[in-house]
Amino acid sequence: MSDGSDLTGLTIQEAGRLLRLGSVSAAELVTAHVARIERLDSHVKAFLRFTPELWEKQAEVADRRIRAGEAGPLTGIPIAVKDVLCVRGVETTAGSKILRGFKPPYTGTAVSRLFEAGAVMIGVTNCDEFAMGSSTENSGYFPTHNPWDLARVPGGSSGGSAAAVAAGEAMVALGTDTGGSIRQPAALCGVVGMKPTYGRVSRYGLIAFASSLDQIGPLARCVDDAAITLSLMAGHDPLDATSSERAGIEVLNNYDRGVKGMRLGVPREYFEVEGIEPGVKAAVDAALFILRREGAELVDVSLPHTDYGLAAYYIIAPAECSSNLARYDGVRYGMSEEDAPNVTEMYMETRRKGFGSEVRRRVMLGTYALSSGYYDAYYLKAQKVRTLIKRDFDLAFEKCDAIISATSPTVAFPIGSKTQDPLSMYLCDVLTLGGNLAGLPGISVPCGTSDGLPVGLQVLGPQWGENVVLRVARAYEQASGVKAEVAGVA
Amino acid sequence: MPLSKDVVRHVAMLARLGLEPGDEEFYAEQLSGILTHIDRLQKLDTESIPPTAQVVEVANPLREDVPRPGLSQEDALANAPAAADGFFRVPSIQEEA
């Protein structure tokens, strides 16, 4: 038996061992996390809603499975789910007022696979509205605070998921990554965050932001936890036509072998981006030193179109968003100005009141880029530049097995410091969005601190190279001894 | 090239997005700022470069054409702000003659 306080800092494998030994039950494990949430979450505000009706039933089922010797690695593990992933009967709002009260009639594939594996859902985590943002300040409800320093942002858009794992409120959490929305908050909160190859995880049941870029992935306390969780939700799903036929389990191939003999690409452009902090650079340099000591060869590579990535992204993502968000019209779900005199007024008023300022800005930008007379100059041009960016990566991966950089140019910044200048917020994703444009797998793993705040090391791999990415991240984690600590909540 | 308020109004109408007082100036300024950054794309010669719309290896996968259960009418209407007689209800679409 345990008093609970030491149950909230465990990894999945540590908790799994205790569960199988019978020294703790799934019910006790979830109770310990709920107790920690009750103590801390009024400060961190990682969660939007809790799901006691789910966790009670799921913990009971998990305990039965464990007693019967039928437990898998995720059985009885408390998880949190970002508010963009549909769970049947659980209010799911994409952080937006426009979807207030929406209870999905089905559960998305990634979540239902984790449920089948025996995970226990604690609640729904906060995020930037429709996953648009890098600080979780664009939530239609309230901002989330960084557990390392409550005056700072947790990053975004999966800021609630990152903060929940960092604060010991959930053992693992699901996020989504369209331009860096898993990796950047993982970096800022000192946890591991993994964006899979586009097509690796089914998007069925994910509230779409930019469909050619969105991917679902885990935020976790260590690389192994991220790997286990990803392997259980990956793999083909007939309900998502872009999901690959490749077996999900291949993400684990040889991922524990270490980096000896691997060639790691260091893209010079990524070390010279606008606004990169010296402390971040120093932490990444130290990580490169460790990887070389472990037997990796460091190779200079170039991603010459880096300076154009943000511009291409801020055409493509808003264009897709303006199309995806057309469905929020007050007819089928969510908010509605049904007293409007005619249907056009109803659409316009519903969307005026329901969308926050960043969503409105992106809908406007995307609509403009797609509008008659501008399509070639903006959208088509951006898609061509997307080809150039993808080619940069293809060429780089001819010279190396994986690419190493910082995840975010900065550590966590003060709440409110970037909200007035959208471009400064967009620049948070300058090192991550290339991976989305090219559809690559990427991970952020903690690599020390700068001014007492966590720094993330990003590893990008070739398409379908999740195992390569996990291998480098795990080798670094093991060699450095840097662990995702449970933040003290300061 | 700064956006005019006319263009902002036109785009808002295309997006069916109601504007608040002051929004025209606000979006004209903010979108112009972002578009100034985006204009750097024009420096690249992309004449011979094909566009990338998506990065997956699969193309137009088809499933067996067999019926399967979908949402029930009740489930489909459960979240509707307004429903009547098994339909979504909306304000009038055509003005009365």
Structure description:
The complex is a heterodimer of chains A (490) and B (97). With 490 residues, chain A is of the alpha/beta class. Chain A has a domain of 248 residues: Alpha-Beta Complex (Amidase signature (AS) enzymes), CATH 3.90.1300.10. Chain A has an 11-stranded mixed β-sheet, sandwiched between helices. The longest helix of chain A is centred in the last third of the chain and has 24 residues. Chain B is mainly alpha-helical and 97 residues long. Chain B has a domain of 39 residues. In chain B, strands 1-2 form a two-stranded antiparallel sheet. In chain B, 15% of the residues are buried. The model of chain B has no long low-confidence stretch (mean pLDDT 91). Chains A and B meet through helix 9, helix 10, helix 11, helix 12 and helix 13 of A and helix 1 and helix 2 of B.
Task: Output the helix-strand order of chain A.
Answer: HHEHEHEHEHEEHEHEHHHHEHHEEH
Main beta-sheet strand count, sense and barrel state of chain A:
11 strands, mixed
Return Rg of chain B in Å. Answer: 23 Å
Note the beta-strand portion of chain B: under 5%
Overview in brief:
The complex is a heterodimer of chains A (490) and B (97). Chain A contains 15 helices and eleven strands.
Q: Which labels suit this protein?
A:
heterodimer; A: 490 residues; Amidase signature (AS) enzymes; 11-stranded mixed beta sheet; 11 strands; globular; B: 97 residues; mainly alpha; two-stranded antiparallel ribbon
Present the secondary structure layout.
The complex is a heterodimer of chains A (490) and B (97).
Chain A: H1 12-21, H2 26-44, E1 47-50, H3 52-67, E2 78-82, H4 109-116, E3 120-125, H5 159-166, E4 172-177, H6 183-189, E5 192-195, E6 215-220, H7 223-233, E7 263-267, H8 278-293, E8 297-301, H9 306-324, H10 343-354, H11 357-370, H12 376-399, E9 402-406, H13 422-426, H14 433-437, E10 442-450, E11 453-460, H15 466-480
Parallel strand pairs in A: 2-3, 2-4, 7-8, 7-9
Antiparallel strand pairs in A: 1-3, 4-6, 5-6, 5-10, 9-11, 10-11
Helix pairs in contact in A: 5-6, 9-11, 9-12
Chain B: H1 5-14, H2 23-38, H3 73-77, E1 83-84, E2 87-88
Antiparallel strand pairs in B: 1-2
Helix pairs in contact in B: 1-2
